[in-house]
């Protein structure tokens, strides 16, 4: 006797719908990540190359807190930004079927002087893009005042993706 008021058919349909949505997102991700740049994708070919492993780069692959998106967030770090500062370049490829609400956090700690900090990027919806002006608002946001020395970086997202740590040397000001 069914006392819940639902049938097995409805339960099966829900599972099939979820499975279909996950499969469609995976197919879309593969298609987007392997396709050439299009007129509607801001710097997609450049963004996609920024998602490949490289020295001084963190790449975090994962989903979104909403479960509607998946992809990668990347930070490329240079220790020769402004005096006593590093610079970060963001790239991301996040695909999905609704709001993503991904927050990416780049945390840093200077191993020589103990200072710490973080930079945050918001990815509210599916996008393939480089980081200026989206997801950061101003090019100044790409400067990290770490101080000179060895700086350890970690990248995390609210979807559970983690990358790092890596250590990048930030040069001192010579002037």
Description:
- This protein has 175 residues and is an alpha+beta fold.
- Helices cover 19% and strands 39% of the residues.
- The strands form 2 sheets. Strands 1, 2, 3, 6 and 7 form a 5-stranded antiparallel β-sheet that branches. A 4-stranded antiparallel β-sheet has the order 5-4-8-9, with no helix packed on it.
- β4 and β5 form a beta hairpin.
- It is elongated, with a radius of gyration of 20 Å.
- About 21% of the residues have low confidence.
Q: Key terms for this structure?
A:
175 residues; alpha+beta; five-stranded antiparallel sheet; 2 helices; 19% helix; 39% strand
What fraction strand?
35-45%
Helix % is 10-25%
Separation, N- and C-terminal Cα atoms: 83 Å
* Number of continuous helical runs: 2
The average pLDDT value, as a whole number, equals 78
How are helices and strands ordered from N to C? HHEEEEEEEEE
- Major sheet size, sense and barrel closure: 5 strands, antiparallel
Tally the beta strands. Answer: 9
Q: What spatial form do the alpha-carbon principal axes imply?
A: elongated
Structural class computed from helices and strand pairing: alpha+beta
C-alpha Rg, in Å? 20 Å
What low-confidence regions span 5 or more consecutive residues with pLDDT below 50? 7-42
